[in-house]
Structure formats: structure tokens, C-alpha cells
Amino acid sequence: MDNILNQIGIENYIFLSVVLFCIGIFGVLYRRNAIIVFMSIEIMLNAVNLLFVAFSTYHQDAQGQVFVFFSMAVAAAEVAVGLAILVSIFRNLGSISIDNLKNLKG
Amino acid sequence: MNTLIAITGLGIFCLLFEILNFRKGIIPFTILGLLGVLALNFCEFGSTESYYNNMITVSKFSTSFSSLFIILTIFLVALSHNFYENHPTKISDFVAIKIFLLAGGVAMVSFGNLAMFFLGIEILSIALYVLAASERLNLKSNEAGMKYFLMGSFASGIILFGICLIYGAMGSFDVVEISEYSLSAELPIWFPIGMVLVTIGMLFKIAAVPFHFWAPDVYQGSPALTTALMSTLAKVVAIATLFKLISGLNFIPSLENQDHLHTFENIIVFISIASMTVGNIMALRQVNVKRMLAFSGISHAGFMLMTFLTVATSAGVLLYYTAAYALAGIAAFSVILYVCKNQDDEDIANFHGLGKTNPLLAAILTASLLSMAGIPIFSGFFAKLFLFNQTIQTGHIALVIVAVINSIISVGYYFKLILAMYSKEPNQERTGKPFLIYAVAIISIALNVALGLFPSLVLDLLN
Amino acid sequence: MEMDTNLALLLVLTPFLGFLINVFFGKSLGKTVSGAIGTVAVAISFIVSVLLFNQITSTGKAIEVTLFDWIQISNLKINLGFLLDQLSVLWLLFVTGIGSLIHLYSISYMHDDENIHKFFSYLNLFIFFMITLVIGSNLLVLFIGWEGVGLCSYLLIGFWHKNQDYNDAAKKAFIMNRIGDLGLLIGIFLLGYYCNTLDYKLMYESIHYRATLSDESFTIIPLAALCLFIGACGKSAQIPLYTWLPDAMAGPTPVSALIHAATMVTAGIFMVTRLNFVFDLAHDVQNVIAIIGAITSLVAATIGLVQTDIKKVLAYSTVSQLGLMFLALGFGAYEVAVFHVITHAFFKACLFLGSGSVIHGLHGEQDMRKMGGLRKAMPITFWTMMISSLAISGVPFFSGFFSKDEILMTAFHHSIPLYVVGSVASIMTAFYMFRLMFLTFFKEFRGTEEQKHHLHESGSLITIPLIILAILATFGGLISLPGNSWLNEYLAPLFTKAAGEEHHLGTTEYTLMGVAVVGGLLGILIAYIKYFKQDNVPESDENITGVAKVLYNKYYVDEAYNAIFVQPINALSKFFRDYIETGLSALVFGLGKVTNKIAFQGRRLQSGSIGLYLFVFVLGMCAIISYIFLAQ
Amino acid sequence: MNVSTILIILLIGAFATYFSGDKLASKVALLFSLAALGCSIVLLNNYNAGENISLINAWIAQPKISFALNADGLGLAMVLLSAALTPVIIFSSFGNDYKNSKAFYGLILFMAFAMTGTFLASDGLLYYIFWELALIPIYFIALIWGNGDAEERRKAVVKFFIYTLAGSLFMLTAFIYLSQKANGSFLIEDLYKVQLSACEQFWIFLAFFLAYAIKIPIIPFHTWQANVYQKAPTVGTMLLSGIMLKMGLYSVIRWQLPIAPLAAKEYMYIFIALGIAGVIYGSIVALRQNDLKKLLAYSSLAHVGLIAAGSYTLTLDGLRGAVLQMIAHGFVVVGLFFAAEVIFRRFETREIAQLGGIRTQSPKFTSMFLILVLASVALPGTFNFVGEFTVLYSLSQINIWFAVLGGTTIILGAYYMLRMFQHVMLGETNSKVFADVTLNEGISFAVIIAVLLFFGFYPKPITDLITPSLETILQVINKN
Fold it and tell me: Which of B416, B463, C326, C471 has its CA 20 to 30 A from that of C371?
């Protein structure tokens, strides 16, 4: 089979994932709802995953795709913990806006 | 490798003990187990082999650092007995988590493949998230956990992206291969950028300026024991890993080939100066001891970063510095744990008159603070000495002078605590002399002083 | 040599031994015994000095004793050694001689004081240091004695230590002496630098050797001489450092007699005479000395004219006599100065002891306005003092006549103006001495009734010394008669140029003598008219006016010094303490404060908002990456 | 037997004292300090007999740091000073009872240990370690057992600690830099051998100067001194002024001058001038002090200024005079502070204004105090005169004006000391009762006075002891 990268250059993939990554970053920076912040982080990770796949095709080497699985699994675990923390916060605070988390400072 | 397996096994055993309803035994068993692991690890010392086609490579560097981690964990586990007295159901979980965290740490210093590196980080971090937020009903703890989690996972994202770029540049995750390619003349720009991104991620973990903001809040919010763990074990793991990463991937030589070395060095110098200064100055006005130590930790991160200017030779110095710092930290935190057991915060006021009520603990805390401040004969002094020595060799005298000025500033807040202990009247009577805490405090400070008297022991391990 | 060493040690150590005994056991020994011990100790040294004197006169060559190395400095080695030659032995004679007389006197005079053993220990210590000063073989040993006698004078002036005014006087004396001592010390440094030795004999040789070379470093010599002279000013109460001596009268009268008239104050003259070979090479300095001496004698005399405190009068007369001696020194007529030192020692000691006897008789009254008519009550005191007054006024054939006359003659030969000044001073001397005599002893008593009731001649322990001194004051002049002077020949070996060749007796000399005598008598006459014929008594302090007031207040010199030196220094000290000190420490603390301020502001940045944290995080990241790109 | 024995005795003594309990502590401490004194005297004999009493062991391989103790005449003289003063100081404290005295006396011995080490160490880093170690005990002594308002004291002591530490850290940097030049060795011989450019020497010299100027202290780095002296317990003050100052002065001679001779020669005048400025400034400030201890602090500022000036002359006389004066000043200042303490024990105050009229109550004490005062104004016949004369002489050889200005100390010194003496001791009998000096107090005084007078007339032994080593140091200085 011929390499898909012959039609669309690797650069485009890189740009795409960088853009995605930045979107994720901006999401994290600008949104105040914890859930949405999580999702933005997920976007970042997925952008990276996309890039992994692209590179692995580019290098004709499966390691990259394997790595994607790692990162997905890790991301899942992370989010699980994160949500757990979020739940307990919601129990104590009744809100999930990260703006309320300003008691520790100075 | 066996170390790693053994540690993981130990963790699982802890969980089993809970199921088998054998709580009493957990702590002693774990400590014994860890001692065993330590012995095992010593056996591996010197051998350099790699497992699972280079997923894990055991080297002097990894073994010596893992031994340090294991020792620290032993202390932490020992402390957790007294810490979780009041809610015994948690013991097994948290001990187990600590063990897994240790596993993550060991994985991080002995990775042979970026995948392993990433997994290690994540194991460590996730464990830390849990521990930070472990006091469910305490809002502070929750907030700490949340902050740490959000920023941590953000940092992980950065690291992942970095790894990805490295992969893109090199077409491999294997450290050996990458290090070979990295010496080739032509390198895609992605490689350095990827490396920088990974470095930034790690700098976040070791809480270097400007990625340090999480540290004070998280340290203050999380349970004292967790803070102890973060400020000693986690920090040491992170810095060691970063060191291994930069040296292992021949990053420096590759930069030299592209003659961008000075760029990198400037960044390191800047960050280390910024970390020391910000850390020390911010610490001056803190009233919460944990928070104060957080800032002092930031400044120490700045000191440790100085080793990155001489990656080729300074592994030993880094090991020595981290050991000295971590041991002092353990000693200090064991006293803090004792003093602030039933206090709702770790305000300095809690330490008033400790010199009268518990002269021994006061002396130990004083010693550990002196060690952090870099007063002879404690190992902290020699750590700084060797560090400065290294740095002056590379001609960064200005950096050293800044470091010196910073050590002067640091004395300011370390002595605030000492003053509180000795020159104020006790405001509460402190009962009970928990054996484990005393033991940990004494042993760790003794080790610290021993390191000071015989620095060569550690220093020459990696030379 | 062994013999000499022992003699020298005996000479020095007996007073010291007396000091130790009186310090440690004095109280238990009881008043008379401790007094006796003190006296005997000094008497022994006197006997030793006599022995040494015989030896010197017979052999004619000096005795040198070296004990051990003291201070080692690279280019000069200073040992603790003694040099007993004509000069030092001569000095020893009258120091120990008068010393023992005054000790004797003190036994009775101080008998009522409960600290008499301390008094004697101090006196002995003084004698010890004075001897050290005189017989030291190098400048530094002299310096030991020099400062030692200063210390003793400090202790003895402040002997009645409950009175802070006396303590102030003592402190003043010590510090003023110290100012001089600094000068002396600098002089020593310069000489040491120039000669690479401080030993008199070696210095003499090396200076004469170097003088022949006359290299430019020779300019050090005048400088050194000047510094040494400053030292002498301090010790011998010359302008500008004389103000301590009158205040020193706060001490018990025997002290004034021994230390502040006869012996210690002559140390300056001794030192200059000892180092005559230095001063001979510095003519400008000699002129300075002469002028200072003349002025001092005049100023002191003028002040003496109007004083009403009997001891103050004597004190100023002492200053003025010392001035005359320096006048002589200034002309290089050392033997003349020495001569006057000796005669002055006799009659001034006698006068002081006499005044002491008077004060003793009046139970501590010192104001002449409250005396008078004591002639009948205390005849011995009167006659002895009368003799001494005649001597000091230069009435012919008393000792003072010869010595003072020689000084004036020398002055005349060198500079007429200074001669005039000197003569005027001595006329005034005659005047105020007899003013003192008339006010004290003639007319009827002006004191209170019960004082009058207790008037009595002092005991024999007091009168005997008076008589002896009076005799000496009378015949002391014989040791250096004009024309054939035993003293000059005796001292000749010490001086470079042959002594006294200037005044072979000629018409000028005789006329000068005549002038001096007339002057003296004139002074006495005025005093006679003013205080006997018209029997005025000086007014009480408040209604003294005009020149008299200025004189009575000693030209306000003390006030001036206070305003010029003491106050500014204290002000400066206050300024340093209150501003510089606090400023400096504020500066040091300031560093800490500033950092703390920064820390305080910095805490605002740590606002606790995750958004901000992440923002800075990203910012930092972008900064680093962009920096890398820029560096590319 | 070599010099390490003294250190061992003192260290063991420190712990033994701590574990002997509050009752015995003082006695035990005295015992060990006397043992140390005896030991050092024995060592002195061995040294004079030509035995090699120095010791050198490798300690750390890379960088080359060795446990090297070298006792030449100079070092021994200083060791003897501290070994002789420590028992006196401990003994003088028998009059007051300190709470938790086991720790107190333990710290004293530990400090003695550190200071002795500083005098003996001949390896740059070992020296630095001892130097810093000496700081910690005095910090606690002043902090815990000090007097006066707690808050004030805290401020003063912390300032003192940070200030001195700041200075010495720069010295450490200098040492590291030097060791680089001496390819990794900290041994004093190697450091002497290092060839430095003028510029390097200047900075090294400056770094050292910072450390020493603060420790000695030379103006304008003296601001910590008066307060700490006042706030610290008298024993601490004695240790500080009697021995610790001398550490700084000794180090100037041993380390600063030989390592950076060019700079020393280049800037000699500046530093001499600083020292002399200290003399005048200290004396003048002392005039208007109301607190006895503060006055003594400033007087000591003046004296050490003169000593420093002497050592910066780089002449044999200067160095010799400086060392002699160090020892003399060590004794006299301890004596004076003890006198202040004796008064404080009876009158509970050091305010000069509230004192006076003691002479009538205790002539004994008066005489002893007076002798000390006279010694401190360098009356001939006291040890101080020998030192001061030699120093002033050396200054006069450099430039007569230095001698003149430095000589003002004999005037101003007399002024403030006698003024103090008059208002403290003389005058109408004090209303409060002044119990006569006890036997213990008497003994302490007697020892000090005896030393001062003996060496005042016969300083030869000390001069002979120190001169050779000073000459060798001068050779190093003048080698290029």
C-alpha cells in the first residue's frame, strides 16, 4: 500500500496537531469549569496522539502507535483520579469552578 | 529490574494484607520488605544490563539513585504509622500507594525507553495526586489535589508532546538509538524543541521558577506526610530523571554540534538563579512551616539545576546534594509531623519552646535546618561546596556568587524557626515520644552528618 | 660589675618593696609603722645613691647595668638596663633625699587619714618609678618611669577619692600628661628610626656619626627634638600643657611638695638634659624651648600675683620657675637649668611643706585671706618659709640667687627680650612670694575664733624636714658659685660643648647681678608696701574686677581648652553615637528590611488562582522556546 | 602526641560536660579546659624541643581536602591564648548559676574546640569548617542565656549570625576559586604557591577582607558588635572579645596576607587607614557610652583596629606587635568584662550613671580593676604596652602620621577609661552595698593580672615563639 503521507505532507499533520494542542492549552487557560478544563487537557493529549500516529507512519515504525495506547491508558487513569478529586471538592464546596480554589495562597 | 519487580510485588502484598485483615503487620512488613529490596538493589549495583529490549537499563546511576529513593521511602513508611494512627483503614492503601510511587520513581531513573520514562512519570504523578487529595473531607487537601492534578496533567501533556517531537525527529523511543542519532551532524529542529518541552515538563515537577507556583499551595494543602514525600522523594526523583534524560540522550553534545550549548546554558543559569532567588525571598515572610519549606525546596531546586552545567561530571555531586537535602528534609518533616500532629495548621507558633519541651527533637530540627542552610559539618554544607566547586570549574563565578548571596538570605528564614524553638516560651505541652518518629529523625540526621564526615562514600559512587 | 648590679637593684627595689609591704600589710601594720617602713625604704635608696655618688665622683665613669632583653623590634633591641652617670646620680640624690624628708614629714601630716598606708605605698611607688625614670639606660625604660610617675601623681592627686572634683583634677593631670607622652613616644619613634637604637650612649654615637654625613634624613632630628619637647611640656607643665599642675594641688600637701614641685615636674628638664646631644643639633627647636619657657614663666607669674589660695600661689610659682629652667635649656645651658632644678627643689619643697604646716595648723584652711599673724604661733614654719622665700626671690647669697642669676645671665647673652621677660617674671616672683608671706604670717589673724584658739606649731616630724630643707635652701647655691662651679665640672662629661665658658665673671655679669638683686628687692618692697604698710587684703572672689579678674581666673585658659577641645570631642562622640552608629546599623538592617519588603510584595503574585499559575507556566514555556528560536 | 589531642580533649569535654548533668557541668568543663591547657603546654615543650606535633590526613579525595593541623609558633601562641583563657572564663562564671548549665558549659567547650581548630587548621576548608563551627555555639549562648529584652536580643544575635556568615561565605567562594588554581587542593602550602594575577588577588583579598573585617570587626563593619556584647551573657562576651576576635586577626596574618600579597601591598595604606580610623572612631564613640559593656565593646573596637593596622603593615614588627597585642588584649578585655560582671552581680546594673563610690566599699576590687584599666590604656610595664608600642613603632616606620593618629589611642583611651573608672568606682560611697570580691573572683583577676604584668616586663618567651613563623609568613608574602 502506498504511504498516505505522499498525498498530504507530514508538515500538515504537525501543524494540525500543534493547532489542536494550542486549542487545548487555551481551553485550559480560559475555561473555569473544571470538567471543561479536563476536556481541554484531553484535547492536548489527543493532539499528541494524532501526531504520534502521523510520525509512526512517517517513520514506517509501529512503536509510535503502541505509544498512543500507553498515553490513552494513562490519560484515562489520570482523568479517573481527577474526577474523584473533583467529586470530593463538589461534596465540600458545592461547585466545580476552579475559581473557588483560592484558599491556599500568599 | 528485579528491584522494580520486587517493589511492585511489595505494593500488591500491602493491599493483600488489608484484605487478609492483617493491618498491624503492614508497616513492619513493608519496612522489612523495603530493606530487602534495598539489599537486592545493592546486589545489582555495578552491573549494567538492560531488560525487555532496553525498556529498562540498570546502571550505576539508576541503582544508586533507586537506593536513595528506597531509603527515603522506608523513612516515609515508618512515619506513616504514627500519621495514620487515627484512621487505620487508610494505612494499607496509602502505604501501598507510596510503594507504587516508589516503583514509578525507580522506573523513571532506570528507563531505557521514553515509553518507560513516561509511564514512570505518570505512575509517580497519579500516586501523588491521590496522596495530595487524600484527606477527603479537608477542603485544603482537595484544593491541593486539584491544583496539583490540573497543572500536573497539563505538564504531562507538554512532556508527551515533547516525547512525540523527539520521536518524530529520531524515529525511535529507544534511549540508546536516540543518543546515537543525536550525535549526527544534521538534526531536525524538532529534537531540541522536544527535549526542551520534556525538560520544561520536568522542571515543573521539580518546581523550578517559573513553573513553581503549584508547589507552595500543594505543599501547604496536602497532608503533612504527603508534603514530606513531595519535598523529598518526588523532588529527588524528578531532578534525577531530568539529569538522566539530558545526559542519557546526549543532549548536550548534540547541542554542541549545533553550537547552541550556550543557549541551553543561559536558560539553565537563568532558571536556577530565578528559582533560588524567588524561593528564598518568598520563604522569608511565610508563617506556615510547610509552605516555607516548599519555597526553600524551590530554591534548592535552583541549586540542583546548577549541576546541569556540567552534566558529564556532576552526577555524583547531584546524588550527594539530593541525598543531603532529602535526608535533612526527612528529619525536619518528622519533627514537623510530631509537632503538628493535632494542630489544624503548621504555623510557626506551634514550634514555640520546643527547645524546652523536647530538646532532642529541637536539636534535630535545628541540625536539619542548618544542613539545608549549608553550615558545616552537616552534609548540606559539603553538598553546596562540591556544587560550587563544580560550577566554578566551568567558570560560572557569577552564578556561584548569586548562590552564595542566596544561601545568606536562606539563613534568614531557617533561623526564624530556630529562634521560635529556643527563644520563645512553650505555648502547649507536648506529650508522648512516638518511637518511630524519634527513630526516623535520629537515623536520618545521623546519616546526614555521616555523609558530611565521609562525603567520599557517596561522592565517588558515580565517578 | 656584680656589685653595681646589686646596688642598682637595691636602689630601685627597696621603694618597690616598701610599696608592696604597704599595699598588702599596711593596714594591719598600723599607721606609724607603715609610715616608718615607707620612709626607711626611701632612706635606704638615698644611702645607696650617696654610695653611688661617691663611686662616680671618685672613678668619674658611669656605671652601666643590663638586666635582660625587654622588647625586641627588628632594627632595635631594647633591654631593661640602667645607666648611672653623673646626671642620674645627681638626680637620685635630691629625689631620694627630699623624698625621704617628705616621707618623714608625711608620717605626722597624714596621721589622721585612715588610708595612710595607701598614701605611703603610693609615695614609695612614685619614688620607685622616679628612680627608674632617672637611671634608665634607654628611652623606653625612661618611658616606664615617665608614665609610672604620671600614674602615681594620678593616684595621689585623687587620693581623697570621695571628692569628684579631686578625681577630675587627677584625671586631667593624667590625660594632659598623656598628650605629652604621645609627643615623647613619637619622638622616640623618630629617634629609633634615625639611630636604630634607643640606648643613650649608642644614640649619642650614631647621631654624631650620622651628623657628619648630614644626609637629608637629618631633618628628622629637629622633628624628634620638637616631639620630645612636647613630652617635656606635658610633664613639666609648660605652655600649652601647664593647666594640670595648679589643679594638682588637690592632692595632699606633701604630694604637692614631692611630686608637683621638687621631683616629677623636673622630669622634663631631666629628659632634655639627658638628650642634650639631640637638642644641640636642633637650634630652631631650642629657640622654641627658650621662648615657651620665658612666656610660661611670665604668664604663670602674672597669674600667681593675684591667687589667694596659698598652694595655688606656690603652684604657679613652680610653673614659672620651671619656665625659667626651660629658658636656660633653650640656650643649651643645661648645667644652669640643672642647678636651678636642684635649688628650686630645696626651697620649693620647703615652701610647700611650710604651707602644709600652716594648713595643718589651720585644719585645712588654704585661703590666705583667712590667715595672718601666724608668725608668733608657728615660728619655725615662719622662719623656714621666710628663708625659702628669700631664696626664691633671688636675694643674694641664698641658693636661688645664684641659680636664677645664672639663668638670667645666659638669657642676657643670647637674647635681650627673653632676658627682660625672665627678669620681669622673677620680680613678680619676689612680689607674690612676699605677698604670701605678709598675708600669712604678719598682721593679726583673720580666721575664726576657734581656729585662732587652736593655732599651734606643728610637731617635730614636720619641723625637722622644714629646717633641713631651709638649710639646704640657704647654702644650696654653693655647689655652683659663679666663676668656679663645682656642678659644671661635675656635669661636664655629659655635654658636648664645654660647660659655662660663656660667663667668666666680668662687669656685665656684676651689673646683671645687681639688676637682678634690685629687681628682687623691688618686688619685695612693693609687696611690703601693699600688704604690710597699707595692709590691704585681697577682696573676696565676686568683687575682683578688671585685669585682676582675668588673672584671678587664669586667663580663662581652662575654659578655653574646655570650649576648644573637650566640648567638641564630646559633641562629636554624641554625634557618632546617635547618628553614625544608628545609621550604619540601620543600613545593615535595611538590607534585610528591603528583602522582606520584596518578599511581602512577592506574596501577592502567589494569588492562588490556577489560571494565573498556568498562564505564567505557558508564558515561561513560550519565552524559552522563542529564545531558542531566536538563538538559532 | 600531636595537636589533635587538644581538639579531642575539648570535644570529649564538651559532650562529657553535657552528660554530666547540671550539677557537675561547670566543674567538669573547668577540668577539661584545664586538661586542654596542660596538654597545650606539653605540646609547646615538644615543639620547642623540635618534635613534629602537626598532623595531616587525607580526608576527601576530589576535591583534595585533608584533615591537616599544623602548629607553628604563631598557631601555638593563639592556641595557648584560647587554652589559657577558656579555664579563666569558665572559672569566672562560677559566681552565677545558669539554667540548663550542662548545655551552657558544653557549648563553651565546643566553641573552644572550634576556635582552637581554627587556629590549628592548615587546610583551607578544614579551617573554614572550624571557623563556621565556632559561630553556632556563641549564637545559642547569646540567644538563650543572654540578658536584656528578648526581642532586642533576638534581633541583635540574628543580625550578628547572618552578618558574619555572609562575610565568611564569600571567603568560602574565594577558597574554592583558589583551590581551582591550586588544581583542586585546599592545603595551605598549595594555596601559598598559587600564582594569581593582580586582579584575581584583589578580589580574593576583598573576599577574605569581608569575612575578617566583619569578624574582627573593622569599621564600618562593626555594627553587630556593641549590641551583641551587651546582650550576650558575660561569658559569651568574653569568648567573643577574648578569643573570637583574635580568630579574625589571626586569619589575616595566616591566610589573607600570604595568599594575596600583591593586593596586600597594593592597598596596604587603605587598610591601615581603616584600622586607624577604627581606633579613633571607637575611642570617640566610647566616650559617651552609658552601658559599661558597650563602652568596653567600643574600646575593644579601637584596640583591634590598631592590631589590624599593625598586621597590614606587612613588616615583621607590625605582625609581631599585632600578635603580642592580640594576646594582651585577649587577657585584658576578659578581665575588664569580668569586672563588669562582678559589679553586675552586686548592683544588678551596668548603667555607669547608677554606679560609683565602690572604692570605699571594696579597695581590693578597685585596685584590681584599676590595674586592668591601666593595662588597657597600655601603661608601660603591662603586656599591652609591649604590643601597642611595637605596633605603633611599625606604623611609624610606614608613615609617621599613622603612628601619630594611631597614638591618639593613648590619649583618648586614657580619657574614656579613666572617665569610666571615675564614675564607676570613685566618688561618695554608694548607697547599695558592694560585697567584697569572693575568693573565686579574686583568683580569676589575679591570674589575668599576673599574666599581664609578667609578660609586660618579660615578653621574650612569646616573642621568641612567634617570630620564626612570622618570618616564614613574611617570606611567603615577599616571595614575588
Answer: C471
